[in-house]
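User: Sequence in, structure out. Go.
Assistant: Echoing your sequence, followed by the structure tokens.
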Amino acid sequence: MIRTQMPSAPPTDEIYERYLRKAISEINELQQELLAIADETHVPVLGSGHPLADIFLLKHAPQQAEITEGVAFFGRSGNALLKSLQRLDVDPLAIYGTNCLKFGTEDDAQARPWLTRELHIVQPKLLIVMGEESSRFLDALEFPLADQLSDRDVGVLHRFTPTIEAIVTPDIDGALDDRGAKTAFWNAFKELGPWWAELPPY
């Protein structure tokens, strides 16, 4: 009697590599679509970071440095966040960052599908939602099984979906030039530290 051996399951790292290749392909596809509708006066600001990041940074609209370079969190906000991540001992390679508005001029209804796609692609474990406008924008996505965040306390870990938690912070762009606002942002953002420390290794 000949016994047929069942194929063994692929190792975990191989499965991860497949998901990573898929995520890279889908992020590139989204970016190509955004670039295709750009013109000389409307250039998209693309998300940046790891396409399967554990932590998803979200703010509302791009600033001039981001628009010039076409990359989210380029410039002062990105530098401030990098210092904050280092202070909390959080791996910057575990981060993906984007804006709710990709051009800064489109209306919310046009921009919502793009952010929805990014969230589905990255599948983060934690959202850092910066500012009231970002919270309201995220709530308006009506993401499956999601709780509303616009009325939640800042600096507190909340449930967003069954698989994603969230921390709401003040708007980082509005905090960079005021000492009190900068302190308020840090006091909320630092909740990321304990969350990261308890994140189980792969």
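User: And one key feature?
Assistant: The radius of gyration is 18 Å.
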